[in-house]
Design a protein that fits this description.
Rossmann fold; globular; binds iron/sulfur cluster; alpha/beta
Length: about 240
């Protein structure tokens, strides 16, 4: 009898305390039932997408197109998916009727980023993930204080799904080394000063010495887009970090 989600999360953490990201991912995909990967096709995405492609090119890869992305991201998504031979990339977009009702002029991000992310990212993703037992994310501890205690596998409150974070303990150096070792194409905006890439209106260049995510929602307290929130609370965030 297969393990329930909570037991499997515990087992994956126990069994892979010393494993490589690839071994963890391979075993998790074999044990976790219906799994999808969620990818922004952003600055680091090629690493995890490459690992997935080595294991199962037909795994569903959900790409959230908020309809506010950089044009470079949309082009890169197609090029990278073709390069890796991924056969099941699904583009997820906001509900048209909801967009028309709640953000008819496309300017909601100027007045209420939380509502905008909910409309354009969190709600479409929640719909897309219905029916899956687990999903793979590219989150890493080094990216933000709210991710400092991120585990490779975690039970998602509220849904019972498992979130798999194979690169939780990776940082910039191994990511860059992996991209080089496998000759993977880089997102073109990285070389232009964007180490973290989200929607065009909410992403700015990062200066030398700044946190890689400093260009996301610059000048605001916001640090996460909401797809890792439950009930408006950033998951695994410590209270002091989230304040
Ligand atoms: Fe809207 Fe900005 Fe969030 Fe994109 S990142 S969904 S434009 S608030």
């Amino acid at each position: 009898m297969p393990l329930d989600a909570s037991s499997l999360t515990t087992a994956l953490l126990r069994d892979h305390a010393q494993s490589t990201a690839q071994d963890f991912l391979s075993d998790a995909l074999a044990r976790a039932g219906r799994v999808a990967m969620v990818s922004s096709f952003g600055a680091d995405s090629a690493v995890l997408l490459h690992m997935v492609a080595q294991i199962d090119r037909d795994l569903p890869v959900l790409f959230i197109d908020t309809l506010a992305l950089f044009p470079e991201t949309v082009v890169y998504q197609k090029e990278l998916a073709a390069h890796l031979g991924l056969r099941n990339v699904q583009t997820i977009t906001p509900d048209r009727n909801a967009l028309f009702a709640r953000d008819p002029d496309g300017l909601l991000h100027l007045s209420d980023t939380e509502s905008c992310c909910k409309l354009r990212k969190a709600e479409p993703l929640a719909r897309a993930l219905a029916g899956y037992d687990a999903w793979i994310t590219g989150r890493k501890r080094h990216q933000a204080a709210t991710r400092a205690d991120l585990e490779r596998a975690e039970l998602e409150p509220g849904t019972g799904r498992i979130r798999l974070n194979p690169l939780a303990d990776w940082n910039a150096a191994p990511i860059s080394a992996y991209l080089d070792a496998h000759d993977l194409p880089r997102h073109p905006l990285v070389a232009r000063g964007y180490p973290s890439i989200g929607c065009q209106p909410c992403t700015s260049r990062v200066l030398t010495g700044e946190d890689p995510r400093a260009g996301r929602w610059r000048g605001t307290e916001k640090t996460e887009c909401g797809i890792h929130f439950i009930g408006g609370v950033p998951q695994r965030a410590r209270k002091a970090d989230a304040a």
